[in-house]
Amino acid sequence: MVPITALWMPIAVSAVLVFAASSLAHMVLPYHRGDYDKLPDEDGLLEALRAQKAGAGNYVAPHCVTPEERSSREVKAKLARGPLAFVTVIPSLAIGKQLVSWFVYCLVVGVFVAYLTGRTAAPGTDYLAVFRLAGTTAFLAYAGGTASESIWMGRKWSTTAKNVLDSLAYALLTAGAFGWLWPS
Q: What is the dihedral of CA 159, 93, 138, 111, to 10 degrees?
């Protein structure tokens, strides 16, 4: 058993590696550029959202909360007629805050990887055993929720596949950091 406090270096190194890799994947490499489509009247939609004074949050239209609302004739007609929309509204781009939040998330993943790996692998465990355990844990953390966005929110499966591929890269980097820096 290895305490989390002994694993601060692989936690930090893996977070930095994943942060750098995700920055490269999303800001430099072109394969994520097609993840979102442009609406035919983007300006009109943005103006409509401003006029609605929609605050930051997640919205669905048509909106219905209770089973009674979902079974009403009016909502059934709206659902049958389509479209159904899931909209995330943020007030403006706050890239600094979002990057800090992503880095903190990478650290949190590292802590959970350290916890699980540290509870199952002893000091001196060989590189490949630590790599497999840390990598599997990291992959589950980074990729675990991506498919649900395609299943429930209509995200393109190609985008989910790219996110899973990114998650695999992040898991391999995390696994490498933990295997390399594992206490002897």
A: -170
Query: What would the pLDDT profile of 146-178 be if each residue is shown by its tens digit?
Result: 999 999 989 999 999 999 999 999 999 999 999
Instruction: Give phi and psi for 160, each to the nearest 5.
Output: -60, -40
- Tens of pLDDT along 97-152? 999 999 999 999 999 999 999 999 999 999 999 999 999 999 999 999 999 999 99
Residue 35 identity: D
What 3 state SS string does the chain have?
CCCHHHHHHHHHHHHHHHHHHHHHHHHCCHHHCCCCCCCCCHHHHHHHHHHHCCCCEEEEECCCCCHHHHCCHHHHHHHHHCCCEEEEECCCCCHHHHHHHHHHHHHHHHHHHHHHHHHHCCCCCCHHHHHHHHHHHHHHHHHCCHHHHHHHHCCCHHHHHHHHHHHHHHHHHHHHHHHHHCCC
Separation between Cα atoms, residue 31 and residue 77, nearest integer Å:
38
Instruction: Tell me the C-alpha distance between 134 and 144, whole Å.
Output: 15
